[in-house]
Amino acid sequence: MRRIGVLLALLSCCTFLCPGLWAGEKGKRRIQSREQSVFAEVKGLVSRDKMQEVGLYEAVDGGETLISKTRVGANGWYGFAVEVATPGFYTVGGEKTSERIRVYLEAGMNAEVNILEDSLVITSRNSPENLLLAEWEGLFEPVRRRVDHMDYIFFTYKELFPWYMEFLPRAEAFKAKIQSKNPGFEALLRQTVEYDVEYFALRALTAIKIDRAVRKGCRPAVEEYPEYYRRLVTKDKLGDASLLEQPYGVDYLEKYVTLALQFEKRKITIADQLRWVPCDLLKAEIVLRHAGRAKTYEKYDEIVTYFARYLTTKSHHRRMDELSAKLYVGNKGDKAANFTYPDRNGKMVSLSDFKGKIVVVDVWATWCGPCREEIPALIKLEKEMHGKDVVFIGVSVDEKKDHQKWLEVLDKEGLEGVQLFADGWSQIVKDYKIKGIPRFMVFDREGNVIMIDAPRPSEPALKALLERELDK
């Protein structure tokens, strides 16, 4: 059960002990001796049975990311001190989304949230921003319960739609009266009210409900949607990425484009969904959502390759790398997991650049003795394959600090041709599940795997393998 409100009864003054944060007064003084202005503090009392840990979550890329966790002390108190670079909403509470509540944090701010048996309470000992936020959370909580909570499983769309339409003016009235001496917070809260209302309206369309009379699942047909839903979707609506500051941002986005396509009576494809989203950063989230559901690396690669123009940020690439590493197997005949790294002159070079050639990849490092021992045999093999459709690519996993050493070793050992610098155990290692080096891999002319754990150049089997492929 999730209830929210403001605790108006003042508790007696006491010292808050936050066992997950400080270890006695000496540790507390160490924290206080640091630059106080960059930290915010969240603390509170837990009386919920069996709840031993409290998490603090940040809205990142339209979802909730755990940034800290602390144990509840024997006296029931918990606490966090977090570095807040950008003011905004965080959520605090348990592992389930329904067990958390939003708080507003900025550098130097303290927040107090009590986690009681059947409620989450923003206490009266809070900033004006969080007291105003608590007022909205308390007003909106009946909506959450009627949409999500099992107590309202028989509260079907036939009752929910009229009730929701009656609630909308109350939300507008609250939004109109929002005033704060903090203009950034004021704008954020006003925007949050709009998103909350719309998101739960979208949730209501697919909420788990049972018709009491027939004891069967009950969901509305499109023609039964109130006019409110047709006004909700417009092609110029999502013009910026502010939605991603909400912990439910990506889920809202998916439900929104689904509704838009329901009205068009079109099949839900990625391209059709993207038509309803003018902001490229939001388009990227749709693409990544679909890529994350791919069952095979080939399907994942098809999606991210076709829609690559939207995947531009470090966050996009990090999540792509995670998906790639999770899905890639590398069996014989599988499409190679592409990689791109700079050569000794800084030019970016990809494995896919050499389609039409048989490619031998050597994953190595200057500090690796067995790798260095293979170099004479590797150079000899390259000379024997000169003039044939074989390309040798060296990929160094040396750290950035050893870049100059890498260049010196290339010259000292006489390594020529395609030499790339991967800057540590980066994506190539994750995709190909490389646990040790040297690792030699061979790919065919179509960019497919021949072997991802091939014989070393010092073994005659590697030359024999290449000659067989050349004869095909």
Keywords:
alpha+beta, 5-stranded mixed beta sheet, 39% helix, 472 residues, 20% strand, 14 helices
Gap from first CA to last CA: 67 Å
Instruction: Work out the helicity level.
Output: 25-40%
Overall 3D geometry?
elongated
SS-derived structural category: alpha+beta
Q: Give the mean pLDDT.
A: 89
User: How many strands, which pairing sense, and closed or not: the largest β-sheet?
Assistant: 5 strands, mixed
Q: How many beta-strand runs?
A: 18
* Strand arrangement across the biggest beta sheet: 1-9-8-2-5
Strand content: 15-25%
Number of helices: 14
Contiguous runs where pLDDT drops below 50 for at least 5 residues = 4-35
Rg for CA atoms: 29 Å
Commentary on this structure:
By secondary structure, the protein is an alpha+beta fold. The protein contains 14 helices and 18 strands. The strands form five sheets. A five-stranded mixed sheet has the order 1-9-8-2-5, with helices on one face. A five-stranded mixed sheet has the order 16-15-14-17-18, with helices on one face. Strands 4-3-6-7 form a four-stranded antiparallel sheet.
Structure summary:
This protein is α+β, with helices and mostly antiparallel strands and 472 residues long. The protein has 14 helices and 18 strands.
Present the secondary structure layout.
Layout (H helix, E strand, L loop, with lengths): L3 E4 L16 H10 L5 E7 L7 E8 L2 E9 L5 E7 L4 E6 L6 E6 L4 E7 L2 E5 L4 H21 L8 H21 L5 H22 L5 E2 L4 E2 L9 H6 L16 H16 L5 H6 L4 H13 L4 H10 L7 H14 L12 E3 L5 E3 L7 E7 L4 H16 L5 E7 L6 H11 L4 E4 L5 H5 L7 E5 L5 E3 L8 H12 L1
Parallel strand pairs: 1-9, 2-8, 14-15, 15-16
Antiparallel strand pairs: 2-5, 3-4, 3-6, 6-7, 8-9, 10-11, 12-13, 14-17, 17-18
Helix pairs in contact: 2-3, 2-4, 3-4, 4-6, 8-9, 8-10, 9-10
